[in-house]
Design goal:
Layout lengths: L2 H34 L2 H22 L2 H10 L6 H30 L4 H8 L2 H18 L3 H25 L3 H26 L4 H6 L4 H36 L1 H17 L1 H19 L3 H38 L4 H10 L2 H17 L3 H20 L6 H28 L12
Helix pairs in contact: 1-7, 1-11, 1-12, 2-4, 2-5, 2-6, 2-10, 2-11, 3-6, 3-10, 3-12, 4-5, 4-10, 6-7, 6-8, 7-8, 10-11, 10-16, 10-17, 11-14, 12-13, 12-15, 13-14, 13-15, 14-17, 15-17, 16-17
Length: 428
């Protein structure tokens, strides 16, 4: 193995471990909540967080993705860009809050327990804006350990909140308030981090006058990244929320424990393609598209193989662990998890193709593909062939992943001018 390959492998391993630390905290927190809250309360909390997570990308409005692309083009983020970005993030966060309140009131009722929990958890959405900005800045200055820190920080507070609120007090409200306080503290820290590493003083930001025309330019440039995040979150979180709305919090709780495991398995493709290779793909797309395709093919093969092995291991081992840890409490989750993990290798492959699409600036085609996947998922749940809750929800996830992968490959092949992006030896 060459020195460059060894260095790349070490960097990827560090990213996986750093992101795995955050995901491990999430998983541990989910285990505490599932253990000490009843299934309905756990499902209620999970579905409330799910709708906020789906809307949270509106809060950041794709600013993080825009900054990352500017960095890949060697364009420095100027004070007027920072000011416009922060103001857009603030305005979009307020819009996201209003939409969340509207959905909670319309689907659950203004005085329902579900709506009250959503109201308490509203600060969580502001966290997404600051997280996206901090992650993009950390990537641009190659401080990959800070990427892991950005991912882990909110989950440490949530773990403490879950331990105290659910583990010690068995209180859904205490847990929710702890989540809200954590979100506020982390938001303040991440915004100060962004201003520090972007190399701009607060005084410069305040003094800079930004024209409405420039605001529109930043808003227009960041919109594709915002939609990309919304659809990405929707593919994971919408089933949890719709399970609560259509089938009740009990089934939402059963599915939520499966989602916690699924997100743990998504770490490898997210770390490799979303954090490490995406900036590399951006640079290669500017002058070496043949090299881009070759790197995609090689990295995708390895990552999909690893994901498949992990999925098989989870399908065999984890249902037994769930049955041993929870007894019959989450029996449905244990029964359907082996089917759900089929989504892991599919998501790994689609994440690789999606990174290529972002690199070659095919955001429109990528968004259309993701929208098709979301429609497939929602349609599978709302118009099921069966009224059995868990089979419908699990089937919707797998159907969405298949739809997404096929659509991605079609778009990427057309964009790069080849018959198949996976089989291509060159891209003309």
């Amino acid at each position: 193995m060459s020195d460059s390959n060894a260095k790349s492998l070490v960097t990827v391993v560090k990213l996986v471990l750093a992101m795995g630390g955050g995901a491990g905290l999430v998983f541990l927190n989910q285990l505490i909540l599932a253990k000490y809250l009843d299934v309905e309360s756990y499902g209620l909390l999970s579905s409330s967080l799910a709708i906020l997570n789906v809307l949270s990308p509106i809060a950041g409005y794709g600013i993080g993705g825009l900054w990352l692309r500017l960095s890949a083009k060697r364009v420095k983020v100027r004070p007027h860009t920072v000011k416009a970005s922060l103001l857009i993030a603030l305005a979009s966060s307020c819009i996201a809050v209003l939409v969340a309140v509207f959905l909670a009131v319309c689907t659950k009722g203004p005085y329902s327990l579900e709506a009250i929990v959503v109201f308490i958890l509203l600060p969580v959405m502001f966290n997404q804006a600051s997280l996206a900005l901090m992650t993009s800045v950390a990537q641009s200055v190659r401080r990959y350990s800070d990427v892991g820190l950005a991912q882990m920080a909110p989950h440490v507070g949530r773990l403490v909140s879950g331990g105290v609120g659910a583990g010690l007090l068995s209180s859904l409200y205490v847990t929710a308030w702890g989540y809200a306080l954590t979100a506020f503290i982390v938001f303040v820290y991440q915004i100060f981090y962004v201003v520090k590493w972007v190399g701009v003083e607060w005084g410069e930001i305040r003094a800079k006058v930004v024209s409405p025309r420039y605001f529109k330019r930043v808003l227009r440039a960041s919109t594709p990244y915002a939609l990309n995040l919304i659809f990405s979150f929707a593919l994971v979180q919408i089933p949890v929320y719709l399970a609560s709305v259509k089938f009740g919090n009990y089934y939402s709780g059963q599915f939520a424990i499966c989602v916690a495991i699924l997100q743990l398995l998504y770490i490898v493709p997210n770390a490799v393609f979303g954090q490490y290779l995406l900036p590399v793909f951006h640079r290669m797309a500017r002058g070496d598209r043949n090299g881009l395709v070759r790197m995609y093919r090689k990295s995708a093969l390895y990552v999909v193989a690893v994901a498949a092995v992990l999925a098989v291991a989870v399908a065999v081992i984890v249902p037994k662990v769930i049955s041993h840890a929870f007894g019959e409490k989450y029996g449905l989750a244990a029964d359907y998890l082996p089917v759900l993990v089929l989504a892991v290798p599919l998501r790994s492959w689609s994440t690789a193709v999606g990174a290529v699409l972002l690199a070659v600036n095919e955001t429109k085609g990528k968004l259309i593909a993701m929208l098709l996947a979301v429609f497939a998922q929602v349609g599978f749940i709302l118009y099921p062939l069966s009224q059995a809750a868990l089979p419908v929800i699990v089937g919707s996830v797998v159907a969405a992943e298949v739809t997404l992968l096929v659509a991605y490959i079609v778009v990427a092949s057309r964009k790069l001018g080849v018959r198949s992006i996976f089989l291509a030896k060159n891209c003309g």
